[in-house]
Write a structure and sequence with these properties.
The chain is α/β, with parallel strands linked by helices. It contains 12 helices and 17 strands.
Length: 399
């Protein structure tokens, strides 16, 4: 691509705003960014006038599950699908996500290591997908949250071996189940599962390999166990307490709140086919989630966007509704954009490449009609999304 976008409102992902700005892309990288008329020589460049439109970095969803579609009971879908069907679902869900302006994702748990085969297909140009940060199988205790399609392990030595297996298979991120969860019958959200020693063993292996880690952690004790074990990010964090907040601040741990997931389960409920046990647990978590999120935000805990897309009615391609919930819980629209872009890049250790509109970074950009700083909900309105550019390639354009 050799394109100059001009007359644009640039929301750069770092908290900066430029009215009447320009962004030049050459090849797969951002060549120049500025205000006013572009000084870039225009020979061979296409010029696109973005008057009335906003240009932002490609968004980053740090918690998705491409293996499932957002049906009422995704656990049952995953268990009954063959690997071939799961792979096809993965491809479709990935493309929907990319075309919604999410140019990078962290998939936080697939089935039978299918995500690694899918990545190869993407690399060979067979499929279109966001940039992929993959986890393979989640690691859980025997009978723990996600056990039907996780890698069960008990004790530090078994967890260490499980992490080594998943890293050998190609994981960029190792995910641990630190507590029970909403979508696994027979587990409770507040109950701790892995011990500090168990998670520490697996996290050590990830760290030695230069990889990041994530903990599904909803109850306060399990959250603190994961932080003390050295985790990179806490996923969900519904019952995070003040001690946990202090530990996150002390150790620089990110919170990925997945606010959409719990709300949608409650909204759709048993009448729409969501299992009763899941609705009960979601209702029991929501009030605490809002309260603890606000305290964590006020305290300055690092945050990145994650949706848990693939869970009940949490549809791939509707990811940016998460930003609306973050604003409802106290973030400004500008802060929500940064959480959905540069903060995610920092968590994934990709901020030298993506996450902000800066010269030399990869050309991951999205263009929306209107100003999301006035109304963040337009980011979740697909009709307002006009361009999606990933690595300098236009992957979606709407007139």
């Amino acid at each position: 691509m050799k394109t100059v976008f001009k007359n644009a409102r640039i929301i750069d992902g770092k908290g900066g705003l430029v009215e009447n700005g320009f962004v030049g892309i050459e090849g797969n990288k951002i060549l120049q960014v500025g205000k006013g008329d572009p000084p870039i020589p225009l020979d061979g460049f296409e010029t696109v006038n973005l008057e009335g439109l906003s240009i932002l970095p490609g968004f980053i969803d740090c918690h998705v599950h491409f293996r499932s579609d957002g049906v009422a009971n995704p656990r049952q879908q995953v268990l009954t699908d063959t690997d071939a069907v799961t792979t096809l679902r993965t491809a479709r869900n990935a493309r929907r996500t990319l075309e919604a302006g999410i140019t990078t994702v962290r998939d936080c748990g697939s089935k039978n290591l299918i995500d690694f085969s899918f990545r190869r297909a993407v690399q060979e140009g067979i499929c279109l997908a966001p940039r992929l940060v993959l986890s393979g199988k989640m690691i859980c205790m025997t009978g723990g949250h996600g056990w039907p399609f996780g890698r069960e392990a008990d004790g530090p030595d078994e967890v260490r071996k499980a992490a080594r297996e998943i890293l050998k298979a190609g994981a960029d991120n190792v995910k641990f189940m630190a507590t029970g969860g909403i979508m696994t019958e027979g587990t409770e959200t507040g109950s701790a599962q892995f011990t500090v020693e168990e998670m520490r063993a697996g996290i050590e292996e990830a760290q030695k390999a230069g990889k990041i880690t994530a903990a599904h952690a909803q109850g306060a004790t399990g959250i603190k166990n994961a932080i003390r074990a050295g985790i990179s990010s806490i996923e969900h964090g519904y019952f995070l307490d003040d001690e946990g907040i202090e530990l996150m601040l002390e150790r620089g741990v990110y919170l990925v709140a997945t606010a959409s997931a719990v709300r949608i389960v409650i909204e759709k409920g048993v009448k729409q086919g969501v299992p009763e046990y899941a609705v009960r647990k979601a209702k029991g978590a929501l009030e605490s989630h809002i309260s603890t999120f606000k305290r964590a935000y006020k305290a300055g805990v690092k945050m990145a966007m994650g949706t848990d897309a693939g869970n009940p009615y949490n549809n791939h391609g509707e990811n940016l509704q998460e930003l609306c919930h973050l604003v409802e819980m106290g973030l400004t629209p500008m802060e929500a954009v940064q959480v959905g872009t540069l903060n995610g890049a920092r968590l994934l250790r990709l901020d030298h490449l993506i996450g902000s509109i800066e010269e030399g970074k990869l050309g991951d950009l999205v263009v929306f009609q209107g100003n999301p700083l006035d109304d963040v909900s337009l980011l979740s309105d697909s009709s307002q999304l006009k361009w999606v550019i990933q690595g300098g390639e236009c992957v979606m354009k709407r007139d």
